[in-house]
Amino acid sequence: MFTDQHGAPVTIEVQSTQEGTSKLLTKLLGQGDDHLVKSTADILASIVHSNVTEIHFNCVMPHSKGTIDLPNDKLAVWIDPIGN
To answer: What region does 63 belong to: left with phi over 0, alpha with psi -120 to 50, or beta?
Structure first.
């Protein structure tokens, strides 16, 4: 649960469409430069709704030898809010 610029609670959930998710993020990101807020919300929504087929990253795992397979259906991404 987050709060918008007026202190009202906003629950952030991925919506069924990219446009719906963008509208919800715009509500959270609030006012200021309306174009910047809308662009930011659109970019975040497009990432959330993109079809990820393959992710590559390097990870050092103590006690592990070789690689680790992470199936997409077991992978989640957390975007930490800046300044919180």
So the answer is: left
